[in-house]
């Protein structure tokens, strides 16, 4: 199978170009065609010799993703369902905020983590994505935004799958979109989320960069977290928190904890007090997320009154807290929901 053009950063292109006997400045030209001009074929790379364009076509696959479905919400959120070369499908989301436009990308086809409130895990894990399949999601989103003269400002790696179970491809993805010759998205505008793959939290802390880290927490104690997130049995809460403290001490950067509020499951005052005590003294932000309704999961949302009460209790422990603004409510907003819906249609 050919490599995808988006698998390579400048350094990789330079090595390949040299191996083919071409001058190294061609690597920068290729990157400019891919990321600045965002062409869709090798033939459009008109300042490259025809022989080089033919070699590129021989060794690399250009069309990485095929757009199956595009959903647009009244609030401007756009959700794509992309088809892959092996007939699998993944989701990518464009979100509009006051601070600019962000893109949420997927790192795996499906997910094996098994969080009980998430649609991504329906059907289990099919495979990891390549670096190029992750990069292409941002390129496709930017091509969509090019129609209105807008630009991707930030990227969150919070779509389907567990990024830290596809660590190497995820890290290479971050490096490519951060490159000046790539999409030139600042490191502080990139956030990686993990459900708690402890060994790779240490690896991530040791990376020499300013990329942000978010931890999907969703419960304040071992028993409840294990029921909601089976990964907690493999990497217990106490080990996760030890890794989080290492990250804070090593990087000096604030950590974000994602906490999905599920009615009558993890949203009571008692749990808010427990969470406040657990995180008190940490340089962190808790992002409270009203859970998306997924028919297969049958969980209910926490009432707004209780969401605000939960926030007040956390803040009484001097834990910084935000409530995620709801987006894409009128489309298949939950991670994995559009893909699951499409698979269900195909099965019928």
UniProtKB/TrEMBL annotation:
Co-factor requirement: [4Fe-4S] cluster
Residues that bind [4Fe-4S] cluster: 111, 115, 118
Pfam family membership, one: RlmN_N
Residue positions binding S-adenosyl-L-methionine: 161-162, 193, 216-218, 292
Annotated active site: 91 (proton acceptor), 335 (s-methylcysteine intermediate)
Keyword rRNA processing attached: yes
Alphabetized InterPro entries for the sequence: Aldolase_TIM (IPR013785), Methyltransferase_A (IPR040072), RlmN_N (IPR048641), RNA_MTrfase_RlmN (IPR027492), rRNA_lsu_MTrfase_RlmN/Cfr (IPR004383), rSAM (IPR007197), rSAM_sf (IPR058240)
Superkingdom: Bacteria
A single GO cellular-component term on record: cytoplasm
Gene Ontology molecular function, alphabetical: 4 iron, 4 sulfur cluster binding; metal ion binding; rRNA (adenine(2503)-C2-)-methyltransferase activity; rRNA binding; tRNA (adenine(37)-C2)-methyltransferase activity; tRNA binding
Domain Radical SAM core as annotated: residue spans: 97-330
Cellular compartments annotated: Cytoplasm
Keyword annotations of the record: 4Fe-4S, Cytoplasm, Disulfide bond, Iron, Iron-sulfur, Metal-binding, Methyltransferase, rRNA processing, S-adenosyl-L-methionine, Transferase, tRNA processing
Single Gene Ontology BP annotation: rRNA base methylation
Chief location category: cytoplasm
Purpose of the protein: Specifically methylates position 2 of adenine 2503 in 23S rRNA and position 2 of adenine 37 in tRNAs.
Family as reported in the entry's similarity comment: Belongs to the radical SAM superfamily. RlmN family.
NCBIfam families per UniProt: rRNA_mod_RlmN (TIGR00048)
Protein name, entry field: Probable dual-specificity RNA methyltransferase RlmN
Organism of this sequence: Shimazuella alba
Taxonomic lineage from the root: Bacteria, Bacillati, Bacillota, Bacilli, Bacillales
């Amino acid at each position: 199978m050919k490599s995808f053009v988006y698998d390579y950063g400048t350094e990789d292109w330079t090595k390949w170009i040299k191996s083919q006997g071409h001058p190294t400045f061609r690597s920068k030209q290729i990157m400019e065609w891919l990321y600045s001009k965002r062409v869709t074929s090798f033939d459009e790379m008109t300042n490259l010799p025809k022989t080089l364009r033919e070699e590129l076509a021989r060794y690399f696959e250009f069309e990485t993703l095929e757009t199956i479905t595009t959903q647009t919400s009244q609030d401007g959120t756009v959700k794509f369902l992309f088809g892959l070369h092996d007939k699998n499908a993944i989701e990518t989301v464009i979100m509009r905020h006051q601070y600019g436009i962000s893109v949420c990308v997927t790192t795996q086809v499906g997910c094996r983590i098994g969080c009980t409130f998430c649609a991504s895990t329906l059907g289990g894990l099919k495979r990891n994505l390549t670096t190029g399949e992750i990069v292409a999601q941002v390129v496709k989103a930017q091509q969509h935004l090019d129609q209105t003269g807008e630009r991707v400002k930030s990227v969150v790696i919070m779509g389907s799958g567990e990024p830290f179970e596809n660590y190497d491809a995820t890290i290479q993805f971050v490096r490519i979109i951060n490159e000046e010759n790539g999409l030139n998205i600042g490191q502080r505008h990139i956030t990686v989320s993990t459900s708690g793959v402890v060994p790779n939290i240490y690896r991530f802390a040791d990376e020499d960069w300013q990329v942000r880290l978010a931890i999907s927490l969703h419960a304040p104690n071992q028993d409840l977290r294990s029921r909601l997130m089976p990964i907690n049995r493999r990497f217990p809460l106490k080990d996760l928190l030890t890794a989080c403290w290492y990250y804070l001490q090593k990087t000096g950067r604030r950590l974000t904890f994602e906490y999905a509020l599920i009615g009558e499951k993890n949203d009571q005052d008692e749990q808010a007090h427990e969470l406040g005590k657990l995180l008190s003294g940490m340089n962190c932000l808790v992002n409270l997320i009203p859970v998306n309704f997924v028919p297969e999961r049958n969980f209910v949302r926490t009432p707004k009154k209780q969401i605000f009460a939960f926030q007040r209790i956390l803040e009484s422990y001097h834990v910084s807290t935000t409530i995620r603004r709801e987006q894409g409510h009128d489309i298949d907003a939950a991670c994995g929901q559009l893909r699951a819906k499409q698979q269900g249609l195909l099965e019928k």
